[in-house]
Amino acid sequence: MPRITVTVDGITYQEDVEPRLLLVHLLRDRLGKTGTPIGCDTGNCGACTVMLDGMSVKSCSVLAVQADGNDVVTIEGLAHGNEWHPMQKAFHEEHALQCGYCTPGMIMAAIDLLRDDPDPSEETVREGLEGNLCRCTGYCNIVRAVRRGAREMSQRSMPEQTEQEVRTP
Amino acid sequence: MTAIDQHPAAAFEDNDQKPVGHGRMLRKEDPRFIRGKGRFCDDVQLPGMLHLAILRSPVAHARIVSIDTSAAEAHPKVKAVVTGAALAEMGLAWMPTLSGDVQAVLATDKVRFQGQEVAFVVAEDRYAARDALELIDVEYDLLEPVIDVRRALDPSAPVIRDDLDGKRNNHVFDWETGDEAATEAVFAAADVAVTQDIVYPRVHPAPMETCGSVADYDRIDGRLTLWSTTQAPHAHRTLYAIVAGLPEHKIRVISPDLGGGFGGKVPIYPGYVCSIVASIVTGKPVKWMEDRSENLISTGFARDYIMRGEIAATRDGRILAVRTNVLADHGAFNGVAAPVKYPAGFFGVFTGSYDLEAAYCKMTAVYTNKAPGGVAYACSFRITEAVYLIERLVDCLAYELKMDPFELRIKNFIQPEQFPYKTKTGWVYDSGNYEPTMRKAMEIAGYDELRAEQVERRARGELMGIGISFFTEAVGAGPRKDMDILGLGMADGCELRVHPTGKAVVRLSVQSQGQGHETTFAQIVAEEIGIPPADIDVVHGDTDQTPFGLGTYGSRSTPVSGAAAALVARKVRDKARLIASGMLEVSVADLEWQKGSFHVKGDPSKSVTIQDIAMRAHGAGDLPEGVEGGLEAQICYNPENLTYPHGAYICVVDIDPGTAQVKVRRFIAVDDCGTRINPMIIEGQVHGGLTDGVGMALMEMIAFDEDGNCLGGSLMDYLIPTSLEVPDWETGFTVTPSPHHPIGAKGVGESATVGSPPAIVNAVVDALKPFGIRHADMPLTPSRVWDAMRGAPQPPI
User: Helices (DSSP H) in chain A: which residue ranges?
Assistant: First the structure.
């Protein structure tokens, strides 16, 4: 059985895994990282989205052995102590979650889409989140949250930037 | 009631502290979910826990000749393999459904739908369990399946339910409502009558989290703990006691955080029973989690009503009567989750928002070789179908009369002074003020401008459609005198306990699946008793910890449990008043309540807060005579009627003439659910429901081929809307409180799912007007719209 070394949310693990073990099951069943859920069996829903070396991936479609030597960040690794990531805060403030099941993957995908466009338009956000399904929110508040989170993230790095109004009436 | 800006520019920094009472308040649930610390069923890990996987039928209808489990049993990680025959020995091969039919837990004699449960494996991990399924060899003797519901009652059709004594056909029930003769008379005399065949196709609620359970049977004290994805934990506990013969006080059902339900988690599924059996057999905790394909092919579907609708009117547009004949496809077992006396749910409200002279419905339900279900996906017990029928018929009539669909609706609304209004099918609508709601939607939409734009676009050969839907919902089942599920009255309990330091815990019998109960029920109680919502914890989903009640579906939480929460808080307040009178040494009549404290009338300086009273209730010192220590109460609320929220929806679509792709450009939803507890949460509920509507109207369908293969068995084929298929929703509201509800609130969660599909279809049909089309059936996918544009028959469903 292959032995892999993988860093998850800042902690390095060495695990013996079957080659067929999916990354999402490694995270959930072996490492107890149950914050990353499973919503489908065809790679469509994106609930299991995590960062693999800084890129968002659907962890149901990655083998654990493929993560050997890599750095994984899950929803559980986003906050620093009790300080939430701006995207987490924005999801809360814009009521961008209801049952909370798609939320971990949605937040990870949202952070990833900002790498290409730190100040995305509504359309850019919608296109960037196409791989993440949500059954509760109708996406509208998610789009608002992502734009709000983006604004707050860029304010952190560029404090001189003026505040933009994100909310539509 | 506290008036709070319902959409402030900035969120409350200290949102848990304010507001006290109704208004926009951020959710108490969010902190755990945004950090991956929710606890869903599959997150439950117990020492020694085994995993269960279910072998499912590959065919729709076949006799089971033999099952060979020897290779699976020999697998080194397998702990048990169980077939229907083994369950039959335990008396557990069949279980009652919520409609009083029976359903096979594991097939014994034959399989009756593709995906039906045939055997299960329990193994050390989920991979091994799936491996072992491949090692089970089942020999099937194929039978002709019954797939087309229209032919299910043909004398030559194979009998699906030969397990039922003397059953010689596929008939489930006949049901009727209204006055047939009176309706016939009105139709005979009417100027205009329009008939339209309307199909509401089979769809699926498909919550993001599938169904699952973890059963932990303790052999020493005989206690069963079952974590399961259930919207009705108490009802499930009682049914397990009946099915499995376990004593009810030894069963604890825990419904943890649910990743959505949408009605898909109301029934008891065979998987839950299998996990219980597996834990009893192995003596270990056993987890069952189905995958998405299993969820789509075997758990409760929604809709599948084949309707012939008729509407009669005068030439000038006075609607006189509605008549319908419905063929309902119930699948292989009648598993409809509805009150016992309502086999067709609340379909009787198909007369809608209009003041009619007569109405009549005749319905026949039949078995087919498909998964059971019917009532799910925010249908409010078949009101989706009822509203779709009437709102399509009104548009068909408008088409016939060449009237604007808006004018036709306004002309026929039940008027505000007519409430409470008894419909021709016997439903008593509690309150409504329809025209202002409709006008508000028209105003937001800019209806006249949209019609003008449509004229211009049509002149350029573009396809633009405007669709209206105006609906009346019926939610909050229900009065126990005539509403029960398998004998359990549809009342709900609520318990409020105020601790000595003035913090409180509210225990609910209902179970949130994302609707925000932990926030809004704290708000209801806060408003009544003046304790800040942050100091009120809401407990739900654990049958050992909460009072009995029937759970969350049919948008019944606010109407029933919300009423219970307000009344239990008032009951505690009444006791607090007695204690306050002792503390202030005045008579009860001399006290005045100002949210959070009692003061002496005319002397506000003499006051005690609810927190002071809580300490006194538990502390030292005498209480007034006859008053017990402690500050808590419990009630079980029996609603006197349903609540009847309403709404006006307008949809604007553009259709690409070259590809027949429908794009929802705008959607305006104005809802009236009476008193609004938390506008932010209502808006989110509406957004979600509107998205369901886009899915159903344009994309979603569980279809079958002639052999009974399910063609919607994964998210590759069962298409649900992504962020790209839905517009930025536009919402508004009016407020017409329910007169019989303690805080005037009506349910709302399902309104948007109920109200939006007809608006979208009406818009598409409106766009296709240049083609002379009066109706097209959902889902309006590009290929089906393409066919409709060319007058070609749409593919059968």
Answer: 23-25, 86-93, 103-116, 122-128, 140-157
CA–CA gap between residue B553 and residue B265 (Å, rounded): 9
Q: Is the ipTM of this complex over 0.90?
A: yes
Other beta carbons within 10 Å of B125: 16
Decide if A39 and B726 are in contact by the 8 Å CB cutoff.
Answer: no
Nearest-by-CA chain A residue for B31: A92
Whole-number Cα distances in Å, B659 to B181, B463, B722, B761, B787: 47, 12, 20, 18, 11
Three-class SS of residue B211? coil
Q: Which amino acid is at B337?
A: A
- Burial code (b: 16+ CB inside 10 Å, e: under 16) for B268-284 equals bbbbbbbbbbbbbbbeb
Q: How far is CA B122 from the centre of its chain?
A: 32
Nearest-CA distance from A69 to chain B in Å? 24
Q: Per the CB < 8 Å rule, is B684 touching A78?
A: no
Task: Give the separation between CA B718 and CA B203, rounded to whole angstroms.
Answer: 9
B668-679 core/surface letters (b: 16 or more CB in 10 A; e: else): bbbbbbbbbbbb
What does B726-739 look like in DSSP terms, one character per residue? S---EEEE-----T
How far from B143 is each of B105, B169, B403, B521, CA to CA, in Å?
A: 20, 15, 52, 52
Residues of B in contact with A78 (CB under 8 A): 35
Which sign does the torsion angle of CA B497, B556, B292, B79 carry? positive
**Confidence check: pLDDT of A162 > 80:** no
**Cβ–Cβ < 8 Å for B343, B330:** no
Name the phi and psi angles at B38, rounded to 5.
-65, 165
Q: Return all residues near A4 (Cβ < 8 A) that are at least 6 apart.
A: A14, A15, A17, A64, A65, A67, A68, A69
Tokens of B709: 């293969």
Q: How many CB atoms lie within 10 A of CB B154?
A: 12
**Tens-place pLDDT, residues B434-474:** 999 999 999 999 999 999 999 999 999 999 999 999 999 99
Is residue B552 within 8 A of residue B558, CB to CB? The reply is: no
CA atoms of A146 and A92, how far apart (whole Å): 11
Q: Residue A92: closest CA among chain B residues belongs to which residue?
A: B30
Our CA-based measurement puts residue B711 at a distance from the nearest CA of chain A, in whole angstroms, of 15
Residue A167 in this model has a pLDDT that exceeds 70? no
Measured in whole angstroms, the distance separating CA B392 from the mean position of its chain's CA atoms is 22
Model-level pTM? 0.96
The answer for residues whose C-beta is within 8 angstroms of residue A121's C-beta and 6 or more apart is none
Please name the residues in contact with B132: beta carbons below 8 A apart, sequence gap of 6 or more: B53, B72, B75, B77, B78, B81, B121, B123
Q: Does the structure show a pLDDT above 90 at B12? A: no
Tokens representing B566? 């307000």
Give the relative orientation of helices B270-282 and B233-244 as an angle to the nearest 10 degrees: 60
Peptide bond into B19 cis (omega under 30): yes
Tokens of B188: 């005979």
- pLDDT value at position B796? 56
Q: Is the pLDDT of residue B196 over 90?
A: yes
B201-225 pLDDT, tens digit per residue, is: 999 999 999 999 999 999 999 999 9
Coil/strand/helix, residue B537: strand
3-state DSSP call for residue B426? coil
3-class DSSP assignment, residue B355: coil
Q: And the tokens for B744?
A: 């005037």
Question: CA of B387, closest CA in chain A: separation in Å?
Answer: 21
- For tokens 């507001």, the residue is B19
What is the C-alpha to C-alpha distance for residues B587 and B589, in angstroms, rounded to an integer?
Answer: 5
Distance between CA atoms of residues B221 and B241, nearest Å: 16
CB < 8 Å to B203, chain A = none
Q: What is the 3-state secondary structure (H, E, C) of B685-706?
A: HHHHHHHHHHHHHHCCCCCECC
